[in-house]
Design brief:
One of its GO terms (cellular component) is mitochondrial matrix. Helix content is 26%, strand content 31%. By secondary structure, it is α+β, with helices and mostly antiparallel strands. The site of 2-oxoglutaric acid has 8 residues, from β3, β8 and β9.
Amino acid sequence: MAKRLLSSLANFRGNLPSEFHFIPDFFSLSEQRTLLSAALLRLDATGSRRYQKKRKSYIASEGSSSIFLPDGYYEFMEGHYDGVIHNYREMHLTSWPTAEISGLSPVLDRLHSLLPFQTKLDSTQTHLLHLASNGEILPHIDNVSASGHWILGVSLGADRTLRLESCIKPEETVDVLLPSGSVYIQSDSVRYQYKHSILKNRSLGGATGQRISVMIRVSSSVG
Ligand SMILES: O=C(O)CCC(=O)C(=O)O
Ligand SMILES: [Fe+2]
């Protein structure tokens, strides 16, 4: 495990493209918990009533000491055979629950202070993506007509590895371990000329588990 971590850090140091920005420890534990609760509150309000009831009765009988419930309590989609995301649920977020979750506003202010190129919040879109323990994202470039030249991702929950692969020089591959509380930004050449993927959890004694990412993208019309 330690060896794997070291080699991924070495990789990351050696080859990280300059337009990939990474802050491994941006959010404190309590900020992570606040953001995760807010994301789950919004995601849990989507989907079928059957699952909403299932979660309610689980919490009533077991309590909710950990943030994520077991995988079976979420309506994860397998994804189509040709889709890039497998075992996940997601939503487009139109507003954060700042009234319901105390302490959320300052956490969002810190998050939004990271938006590159002094982008205004109203020219961005936010998505929440919840990966099941066995969820994965296959290599892809985000739809170039749907969003602009940078993509920001916050990782919450279980550690995952992000793989970047250059489309121009396929031998240029970088693995970046994304701990909970980390933030990355792919901009310009990385956003357009590298495929990215989130590898499936490998249960080599490492923690497996669910992960939520908060993805912020700039609109395609904004320079
Ligand atoms: O979860 C992530 O960090 C990446 C998500 C992603 O690649 C996407 O939604 O297009
Ligand atoms: Fe993506």
